[in-house]
């Protein structure tokens, strides 16, 4: 089992504080959802975990299976089994998707191992069928000229190819139609098991209806102020974020978090 432990994480960009003490534990075998209003720090958290150099970590720790990953460059974090699906995938003209996937898979191999190209491509094509992704895209430049849905399918294809220990999905469902959301969710769900964990960053309930996360967290003003189960998603769907904003405060540095209806009922 792999465990990603985030303690007291603080980070800023261009001198502006964004994360103000995030505490979160992600384990393989679990799917977590992270929600929160715009500007709360969700994408910042994803980028800091993966090592985007634009963000400056000003406090706290991120530990993966006993290794302090804050000292590691992006590619070393990926080698350890971390994966980030971007909200806005980058277009790379001149690099075919097939070559990109093959090279990425080769970097994950241990010294002395060789990639069996025929079986590798067979697996990639099977994954493309699973995603309803036209195999002609293998010969096209990565994300170049792709629609939004095609870019997100390409991200999930990378997930299925690399088989990371822990994956972060930064609003992968943003801008997708119903069929694309189902396809993306099916790809993530296919990975589900004791050797894989996920953090789904989203604004919407729909993808969570397909994935049914074990844990749901709310990020507000750069801190996780509420954690629980799917009842939180239903509460946010019904009431929005106003009740979180109104109930949030600080007392000795500790967030004051309002109870959901579900937790209130449990006390009756």
Quick overview:
The chain is α/β, with parallel strands linked by helices and 268 residues long. 36% of the residues lie in helices and 28% in strands.
Structure description:
With 268 residues, the protein is an alpha/beta fold. The chain has one domain: Rossmann fold, CATH 3.40.50.300. The chain has 10 helices and 14 strands. It has helices at residues 42-50, 74-79, 97-107, 117-130, 148-162, 178-191, 206-211, 231-239, 242-247, 261-266; strands at 3-13, 16-27, 31-35, 56-64, 67-68, 82-85, 92-96, 141-142, 166-170, 197-201, 215-220, 223-228, 250-251, 254-255. Strands 6-9-10-3-11-12 form a 6-stranded mixed sheet, with helices on both faces. A 4-stranded antiparallel sheet has the order 2-1-4-5, covered by helices on one side. Helix 3 packs parallel to helix 5. The longest helix is centred in the middle third of the chain and has 15 residues, at 148-162.
Number of helices in the DSSP assignment: 10
| Main sheet makeup | 6 strands, mixed
For the record, the CATH class is Alpha Beta
Globally, the shape reads globular
Q: State the fourth-level CATH superfamily.
A: P-loop containing nucleotide triphosphate hydrolases
């Amino acid at each position: 089992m792999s465990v990603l432990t985030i303690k007291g994480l603080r980070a800023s960009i261009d001198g502006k504080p964004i994360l103000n003490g995030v505490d979160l534990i992600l384990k393989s075998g679990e799917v977590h959802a992270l929600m929160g209003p715009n500007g709360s720090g969700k994408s910042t958290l994803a980028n800091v975990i993966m090592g985007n150099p634009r963000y400056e970590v000003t406090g706290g720790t991120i530990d993966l299976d006993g290794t302090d990953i804050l000292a590691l460059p992006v590619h070393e974090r990926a080698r350890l089994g971390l994966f980030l699906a971007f909200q806005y995938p980058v277009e790379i003209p001149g690099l075919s998707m097939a070559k990109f996937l093959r090279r990425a898979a080769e970097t994950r191999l241990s010294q002395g191992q060789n990639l069996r190209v025929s079986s590798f491509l067979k697996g990639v094509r099977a994954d493309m069928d699973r995603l309803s992704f036209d195999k002609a895209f293998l010969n096209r430049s990565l994300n170049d000229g792709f629609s939004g849905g095609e870019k997100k399918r390409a991200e999930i294809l990378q997930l299925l190819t690399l088989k990371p220990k822990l994956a972060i999905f930064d609003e992968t469902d943003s801008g997708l139609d119903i069929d694309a959301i189902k396809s993306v969710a099916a790809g993530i769900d296919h990975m589900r098991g004791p050797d894989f964990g996920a953090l789904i960053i989203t604004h919407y309930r729909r993808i969570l209806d397909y994935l049914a996360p074990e844990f749901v967290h709310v990020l507000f003003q750069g801190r996780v102020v509420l954690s629980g189960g799917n009842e939180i998603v239903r509460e946010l769907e019904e009431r929005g974020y106003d009740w979180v904003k109104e109930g949030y405060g600080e007392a000795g540095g500790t967030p004051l978090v309002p109870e959901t209806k579900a937790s209130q009922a449990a006390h009756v």
